[in-house]
Amino acid sequence: MVDSISDIIVSGTVSTTFIGLILLLIVKNATEYVIAVIVAYKDKMSLVINIAIGFSIQIALLVLPFVIILS
Length: 71
What we know:
By secondary structure, the chain is mainly α. It has one domain (2-70). Helix content is 86%, strand content 0%. It is built from 4 helices and no strands. It has helices at residues 2-11, 16-28, 30-41, 45-70. The longest helix has 26 residues, at 45-70. The model has no long low-confidence stretch (mean pLDDT 81).
């Protein structure tokens, strides 16, 4: 994965800042992703759906303004 990220940055299709923001969000929410998988394994799908909606809203509210500014 690291080698592919450096290849994308070198090709110039995506900026380093954008990739950094995406990776920051993924690492920051890693524990929440694990909890969502554990809850799904316990068959509590309503809680999993609520977690997924929260993730989507959080990522959209943080990334969307940066994408608009950077583009």
